Amino acid sequence: MNGYEQELFAQRTPYLQWLKRQDAALDMRYGQHLKQGALGKQIHTLPFSSCMDNIQIPGELRDDGIGLFVREGGALSRYAQAVFSDTFLASPDVVLAYADEDYRGSLGELYGIGGATGAEETVGAPWFKPDFSPDTLASFFYIGSVFAVRGSQILETAERYGSDISIYEMVCRIFMEAIGTDGIVHIPKVLYTNDRLADTEKIESSDKIRSLYEAGCGRQAAGAGCDKVSIVIPSKDHAEVLCKCLETLVLYTDYSCYEIIVVDNGSSPEQKMCITRMIEALRRDKPGLSVRYLYRESAFNFSAMCNAGARLAEGEHLLFLNDDIEIMDTTDGRQWLDRMLVYGRKSHVGAVGAKLYYPAGEEKNACYKIQHAGITNMGIGPAHKLCGMADEGCLYHGHNTQNYDMIAVTAACMLIRKHLFDSAGGFDENFPVAYNDVELCFRLYQQGYFNVQVNEAVLIHHESLSRGQDTSPEKRRRLSAEREKLYRKYPSLNARDPFYSPNLVQWKRDAQYNTGYLYAFDRQAQPVPPENSRVLFRKADIRNLLHAKCAPAAKLYDCLTGYHDLMLHIDNICYGDGIPEEEKADNNDNKRIGGNIMIEGWCAVRNADNAGLSRKLWLIDGGQDHKNVYAFDIAPKLREDVAALLEQDSRSRTRNTALSGIQVNIAGCVLKPGTYSVGVVCGNKLICDPQKYVVVPDEETGQGTKEKGL
């Protein structure tokens, strides 16, 4: 393969590139040991076909040995035994260790490409698992196909419970006893390959598994009866929205032991009157229902509003609920609160979240789209996972169907025991708008509690599907400031989430769970000298003058110079703070004004072979003399959609445009404050996108925040 074909293949097979890098590292670490046959621990392979199989104990197993459970229908990595042996040797506290795995498939099945590239036909689809997650285990056997247990623990379990105990029961009991310890280790390495790609959507879950968990392993808290729930709803000037929330709450919630506390920080007199009448009507229609209305004019502070409601609460549990939540009139929808309480009552659980849908669209029979299925703490910051995806099928091993431990859940619908909320100190009122729910969940996690995303509890959240990120400069600065404040308070959780594998995407938005292999375009771009800037600007000025004076002359000029062959489209300019961890060492003194700037789009040349085309992205200030001009090399990025558009005709002379994508990540500190237009240079041609501008605010004054074109 030539260089273009190699890069094209690499970008079409991200997991294959990741796997090659992992195996090279493992070979460097364990290759010599494997040749010498020195593992360091006595390992006994214990095959199984289902987690419901009874444990089979070999007669030669000793306390200091390891039982390596390996599912039938797959193969261990050649490094697996060495890695597991190392894990148990590293700490005497480790009782159970499990690893990641993948599923065997062809290039065609996984990536839609054949083997004409000369690369191997058989590759894998990875399952990167979370760290120790006892409540995920309550839903399904997320441990998977390969795990190891210390010999002494296997022998002790058999002695206490008999040899007919299932593998699942044994693992469950080990998990529950390990809460608050370092006894469970997740090895973030792929050490097992399943034979069938079709098994990726198989979830090893059943009613029997759940009943076994609850019967012996669930640590059900005392008093699991009709616990009173205090539902706290912050609201202001949203009488109509609040009315819908309260009506559906009362009509469609099966669980009946609750009170409602509406916290209003200053609705208008008209809105206040509407809310008061609505509450009076609720009391008349449902005698015995406690509904309180706390009205106090004050600046908006979501945390303070929730804390004020919690102080009035009389229930054993607090349920924080946005006023734009709607309860669904379905069998499953009506049981939302019961299902959250199953986890909310557990003594080791902190906050409990629900799955939230965007309102249904107008399409007939269209499934709901997910707004929230838990929060992941990525390198770019906290993010809602599966956001915007249709809730159909099995999304990355049940992240839309099973209940998962997560680092955080949204306070749009959050359940927590009142005594735990009070002892934790409630919401931090230094986070008035953003990340207040994440901050509370971080605090609970550091105190040893597990936050649970209950996907069996489903509600509708009337947050606009097109709302997206805050885009105004003021909101961006506030969001960035609160995110930085969050990580100053919890530095150990900056770009770290124990329930989201470090092998998954970290440094860009990812609704799914994609392999986090870093290509050249993912890395932070460094400015290079903008060569021949005067010549290019002079040519551009001539061209613009001709276009203004005489259209035929302009067309002739374009034909002679080839300007009409250069195509540029900037899709998106977004602002963030993420720098890949491996690059942070080089950026310790990098004071990022305005954070990072990500510019995305594509650029290609018509009637030409685009393979290996040298391209630079230019940022050009808006002044007449263009004093500030920055250039950045553009690394190739896969854009199959562009290739399909430009090469749809087999006779087209425009070729090899699949790597015409643009993704340039720039640290804001390298740019002077101001407003910049975006251009791309190919050879000696410069083209600018007239609709897109990069804005770099001054850190002190906030100047340069003009939003024209964005």
CATH H-tier superfamily of the largest domain: Spore Coat Polysaccharide Biosynthesis Protein SpsA, Chain A
CATH class of the largest domain: Alpha Beta
Domain count: the total is 3
Rg, Cα atoms, Å:
29 Å
| Class per helix and strand makeup | alpha+beta
Quaternary state of the chains = single chain
The largest pleated sheet is described as:
10 strands, mixed
CATH T-level topology of the largest domain: Spore Coat Polysaccharide Biosynthesis Protein SpsA, Chain A
Low-confidence stretches: 218-223, 465-469, 581-594, 701-710
Distance between the termini: 41 Å
Outline type: globular
* CATH architecture descriptor name of the largest domain: Alpha-Beta Complex
Q: State the helicity in percent bands.
A: 25-40%
The number of distinct β-strands equals 27
Please tell me the overall pLDDT.
86
Count of alpha/pi helices = 20
Strand content: 25-35%
Give a brief description.
With 710 residues, this protein is of the alpha+beta class.
Overview of this protein structure:
The chain is α+β, with helices and mostly antiparallel strands. The protein folds into three domains: 3-217, Spore Coat Polysaccharide Biosynthesis Protein SpsA, Chain A, CATH 3.90.550; 229-493, Alpha-Beta Complex (Spore Coat Polysaccharide Biosynthesis Protein SpsA, Chain A); 520-696, no CATH class. It is 31% helix and 25% strand. Strands 8, 9, 10, 11, 12, 13, 14, 17, 18 and 19 form a ten-stranded mixed β-sheet that branches. Strands 1, 2, 3, 4, 5, 6 and 7 form a seven-stranded mixed β-sheet that branches. The chain is globular, with a radius of gyration of 29 Å. Residues 218-223, 465-469, 581-594 and 701-710 have low confidence and may be disordered.
